[in-house]
Amino acid sequence: MAEWIDLLDPSEAELRNAISYEVHDRALEHLLRPTRHDDEPRPRLEGHDHYVFGVFLVPICVREEDRVYYQEVDVIATREQLVTVRKAPEQGHPFDLSAAQESVAKEPGTGVGLMVYRLVDLIAEYFLDLVDAIDDEIDELEDGIERWPATQIRTRISTLRHDLLHVRRTVSPTRDAIRRVVDRRIDIGEGPGGELLPRDIELDFADVYDKLLRAMDGLDLSRDLLSSARDYHQAKIANDQNEVTKALTVIASVLLLPTFIVGLYGQNFRHIPELAWGFGYWWSWGWIILTTALQLAFFRWLGWIGGDPIGRPELPPLRKLDPRLLRGRRRARAT
Please, what's the largest Cα pairwise distance for the chain? Predict the structure, then answer.
């Protein structure tokens, strides 16, 4: 019966007690090496003479402290035994395997290959959940662009961008590692007990590979959405600056003609015809009011004040995209 041994930051004696067979020196050194921030290994799966050695990483984003750390899970799998070595990150907690272990416990007689599958499937599900969470935060960002301060928006965009890079850094090599199992490139030689990864388990790994592909596609979509949100934010800033410029232009233009009229009749010359008029004061006020009203009406027609432009055609609504309505559209255009 296959056995699953889980170790958390084991000492060399504990590790050698759990692993009774020979392990490559490099793999043993890696299993005993403590985790270090910014020096995490690349996720991978390697087939050795009688065991499979694997390294998996899971990113954890701590928003309150603006940092990202990685949970590392190392795997040594033989035909009879699975040993997982979890490493507690600095200022963080180790990866929780309880869901995978409970799933295995419900299936008596489970082989090591299925145990490994449950483990990597749990990691793949976490990646999908992580991508969904990032998408939700991008949606929240898009909704808040109209309301939040520009500094807060720029900080949020920068944080999400770094989170996407950290997640992509682990998803991509994990996908490549699982692809090796799907392509049957993991070989540990022949021995008693049958294959470690029989064909039906390899098909299960294909499902994990599909989940990781979906996670990669989701990351690409999230990156595009974040870029669109950033472009929209920059366009909004430029548009707001244009609106301020329009307001200042309206104010300057409205004050320009009254200032000219007042300056014209305020000149200190003796022969100004309007000075002798009994209604000269109201004459000048009439011109000021008339020119101001004409300018305000003109700027209202342009849409610079008071809302949208007057008399401009409205943008037609988007048409319904239905395969039944679009069938034969391209051929009809060609003819």
Answer: 122
Task: Give the three-class secondary structure for 194.
Answer: coil
Question: What pLDDT score does 307 carry?
Answer: 79
**DSSP bridge partners of 77:** 52, 82
Show me where the domains of the chain are located: 3-237
pLDDT tens per residue across span 183-220: 888 866 555 555 778 888 888 999 999 999 999 999 99
Alpha-carbon separation of residue 19 from 9, 26, 78, 84, 310 (angstroms):
15, 15, 10, 11, 81
Which one, of 76, 170, 163, lies nearest residue 123 by Cα?
A: 170
Per DSSP, the residues of 222-241 read HHHHHHHHHHHHHHHHHHHH
Model confidence, pTM: 0.77
Burial class of residue 297, CB neighbours in 10 A (0-12, 13-18, 19+): exposed
User: Per CATH, is 3-237 categorized as 2.40.240.50?
Assistant: no
Please name which of 28, 25, 27 lies closest in space to residue 11, comparing C-alpha atoms. Answer: 28
Spatial separation of the C-alpha atoms in residues 91 and 94, rounded to whole Å: 10
> Which residues on neighbouring strands pair with residue 71, listed in sequence order?
58
- Find the DSSP H helices in 145-182: 150-182
| Distance from C-alpha of 4 to C-alpha of 132, rounded to nearest angstrom | 31
Q: Counting every residue, how long is the chain?
A: 335
Q: How far, in Å, CA of 256 to CA of 250, rounded?
A: 10
Integer Cα distance of 20 and 30 in angstroms: 17
What does the pLDDT look like over 76-112, one tens digit per residue? Answer: 998 889 999 999 887 788 999 999 999 888 887 778 8
| Distance of alpha carbon 59 from alpha carbon 169, whole angstroms | 9
Percent of the chain with pLDDT over 90: 30
